[in-house]
Amino acid sequence: MRLLSLTAALLTVVAALPRARPLNRRGSEPLPPTVDPFYVPPANWLDAKPGDVLKWRTITPGFTQLNHMNVDKAYQILYRSNGINNDVPMTTVTTVLVPHNAHKNSLVLMMPYQDSNYIGCSPSYIIQQGAPIQNNSIQSLEQLLWTSVLNDGWIMSIPDHEGPNASFAVGPMAGRASLDAARATLNFDKLGLAQNSPIVGTGYSGGAIAAGWAAQLHSTYAKELNVAGWALGGTPSNMSELTYTLDGGLFSGFAVAGLAGVVNSYSIAQDYIGTVVTHAGNVAMQYTREHCMSDIVINLRNTHVLNKTFATTGSKLLLSDQITPLLNEISMARDKALTPIAPVYMYHALHDEVISFDSANATAHAWCANGAKVHLQSFFGLEMGHITTELLNTPNVLSFIRNRFANKDFGDCSFTSSPDPLWSPDILGAKLTEVFNAVMNFWGFAIGRGDATLKENIQQGKPV
């Protein structure tokens, strides 16, 4: 009852705020990444090292002005990185937001959830003023944390961690892109950040794929980075289990998008899926390459991936020797050599209707067994769903970031559980109205008990 009352009170605050308007004025739209020359690397880019700055520009971020966020300057950096392994060079972009009175001794690496294989949904594009902003209340929720981080004065780097062609659920690539975004941000001389500046990385849901893999790859790929900690929420750590969990349900679009992302990035997956996928399956996967998350959730709901309408293999799609080893390889906590060396804070709803708690729990225990320091905080209240947890646990994530920058003791592995987060608005600061401007760009959205309203809207095909 305490959480339900609090949620109702917060939504009342939000409903009382003036509606924001999209900044997609005719004639002012930025160029999409497919035609914007900024995304094209210089001729000698292969000579650069991972994390080297290839290009940079200043931008005007639309949503930060819309929501009165504490942003003084905004930059975009095209940088060198690697893809699915160190032998697949690539470039991608990170957006750097610099608050007024910024601390020059710390960096927050923020991995947003794109959850789509469409390059037009990349953070670096949709963050620009004039970009076609979707009426997407789900993604606007993560801006609560963005606002809080900026209010604390931390520089924030937001990478296009799905890479230059946007491939969802490809953890090894997302992890490298994220670590190299940190390198590039430290290398960017306009910021004045020291190379040994402490870094805290965070991601929720699809963003936790990038954050989790960055945590795993840190020791072998970018050990020189002074990472103080990682925060992962609603973590999809196992692609196979994710597919089985979501298949045929309201959120099955994520399973389709994940499969399409793997096909986009791995030739072995492309060869196998190409021989068994049906026309309907191809159409569904292609949809995720041409639309953003909100449309994918709505229009691919109740899709049966493990059915002969999608692939001739039916329920055995993921059981072939041609695909199973790859899916194991891109799951977290499968290789002891890829164990996080910085503290990891994980949080997850026990009854998460999108991402199975069991997978995240298994990942946390495996990492602990291999010597990592992990705190997994679970919430067993029936009212705690995937989206509810993201919103209401924001203060705990912010506290983790603050504590890591303050070098407070994290302890060893621990597992705690409670009905819901102890929501403390004072952690976020006094400007609660401003905070909730960042929670929802477009109002008229209520989460509901256990994300009930959200699920009803999806089932009815309403925008989310």
UniProtKB/TrEMBL annotation:
Residues 1-16 form the signal peptide. Its EC number is 3.1.1.3. It catalyses: a monoacylglycerol + H2O = glycerol + a fatty acid + H(+); a diacylglycerol + H2O = a monoacylglycerol + a fatty acid + H(+); a triacylglycerol + H2O = a diacylglycerol + a fatty acid + H(+). The keyword Lipid metabolism applies. One of its GO terms (biological process) is lipid catabolic process. GO terms for molecular function: triacylglycerol lipase activity. It comes from the Eukaryota. InterPro entries: AB_hydrolase_fold, Lipase_secreted. Keywords: Hydrolase, Lipid degradation, Lipid metabolism, Signal, Virulence. It is an enzyme of class 3 (hydrolase). Belongs to the AB hydrolase superfamily. Lipase family. Class Lip subfamily. PANTHER family: LIP-DOMAIN-CONTAINING PROTEIN-RELATED, PTHR34853. This is triacylglycerol lipase. It comes from Malassezia cuniculi.
